[in-house]
Design goal:
two-stranded parallel ribbon, 9 strands, alpha/beta
Length: 370
């Protein structure tokens, strides 16, 4: 069985590998043969220390890690891993274009452990460099520029006709063990690759006034894409039944790929907007907190999100037909936490796979009851 699964999966993937000079990679970008999705540039940013250490490594003869590209139907390469390395090279050379189509400000390096003389190093002296006057900029010598251009970098190519979903899987697997992207930041990139219009729509949902009032997130949580995570979970749970086999994160990842392909219906949009309107009018920022004797306590939690928000969403059509939808939701939210059954949702050490098989069905049934 395992051997058959491996064989079947391998048929989905065709790969190749090249050794290229950095100069060749730069030329491909300049000729628009190497595509960097602009939205990725908004999601990931290296600091100047990381950029400087990349050039330190190259000048010391340490080759950069491989980059991974996906061969598109027009034979152009779409960068799916190595964004920061390639962007750093292009930015330093003054060639990187920002998401709006304008040239990015060229970077100016800082001292590194082994090359302290990289302080204020630039590819070319320019008044486009921010915060460092031209008189203080130190242009790299032609021999160093040539060394950088001639340095080799391995390019791993996911070739057509590899299954399109393989691109998303590869992106996630490559990035999950690297710097600083959390699960939702990676998921955002997958959505962008699969369906940019859906990403924009989900982003709008995450900025919905009623939604933000109910989920009560601070600036740090918003910065870490927590709002987008809740929107993603909402849509996946609403549209795709969970069979209990997949890890929860993998379930949400696969669900978002499927939704990216299928799109959202008007019913899905209504379920989102009306669910959070009702919750906001019923309890505001306390809607997703646990109630004790009628009083809200504690923090907004995934348990409450799965029980309450999804419970309302799964019954939104019938709830909206009630004489007093807000009053119904208000009462059902409070009484839900008085049910002995909800105690099991907070058991210490409970796996997410177990929890959502309890919380989501409970919420569906609870808010279906008159």
């Amino acid at each position: 069985m395992l051997a058959e699964e491996i064989t079947a999966a391998q048929r989905l993937v065709k790969t190749d590998a090249y050794q290229m000079s950095i100069g060749e990679v730069v030329n491909m970008y300049r000729d628009k043969e190497l595509i960097i999705d602009p939205e990725f540039q908004r999601l990931f940013r290296w600091k100047i220390g990381q950029k400087s250490r990349l050039f330190e490594s190259i000048l010391l003869g340490i080759p950069p890690p491989s980059i991974f590209v996906f061969e598109r139907e027009d034979s152009k390469w779409e960068l799916i891993d190595g964004l920061q390395r390639v962007s750093t090279l292009l930015e330093f050379m003054g060639l990187l274009v920002n998401p709006e189509g304008d040239p990015e400000t060229p970077s100016c390096l800082e001292s590194t452990k082994y090359l302290p003389s990289l302080h204020n190093a630039v590819w070319e002296v320019s008044d486009r460099v921010v915060d460092v006057p031209t008189a203080q900029q130190q242009e790299l010598g032609q021999d160093f520029k040539l060394a950088i251009r001639r340095s080799r970098i391995a390019v791993e190519i996911l070739k057509r006709p590899s299954d399109n979903n393989t691109k998303y899987d590869l992106f996630q697997r490559l990035n999950a063990g690297g710097t600083p992207a959390n699960a939702q930041e990676l998921r955002n990139c997958i959505i962008i690759m699969a369906n940019r219009a859906l990403f924009i729509e989900l982003k709008d949902f995450s900025e919905n006034e009623n939604f933000l009032a109910v989920v009560s997130m601070n600036e740090d949580q918003l910065e870490k894409q927590r709002a987008m995570e809740y929107v993603s979970r909402f849509m996946v749970h609403l549209k795709i039944p969970y069979d209990g086999r997949l890890d929860v994160e993998e379930y949400v990842n696969r669900g978002m790929v499927q939704i990216s392909q299928d799109g959202l219906s008007d019913g899905d949009r209504t379920a989102f907007s009306e669910t959070f309107r009702l919750l906001n009018e019923a309890h505001g920022p306390n809607a997703l907190r646990r109630f004790y004797d009628g009083d809200p306590r504690g923090k907004v939690s995934l348990v409450a999100f799965e029980v309450v928000a999804l419970g309302v969403a799964q019954n939104i059509v019938s709830i909206l037909q009630k004489q007093n939808p807000v009053g119904f939701v208000r009462d059902k939210v409070v009484s839900a936490w008085a049910s002995p059954e909800t105690e099991q949702f907070f058991s210490a050490g409970m796996r997410g796979t177990t929890r959502i098989q309890r919380t989501v069905p409970f919420g569906r049934q609870w808010f279906a009851n008159a």
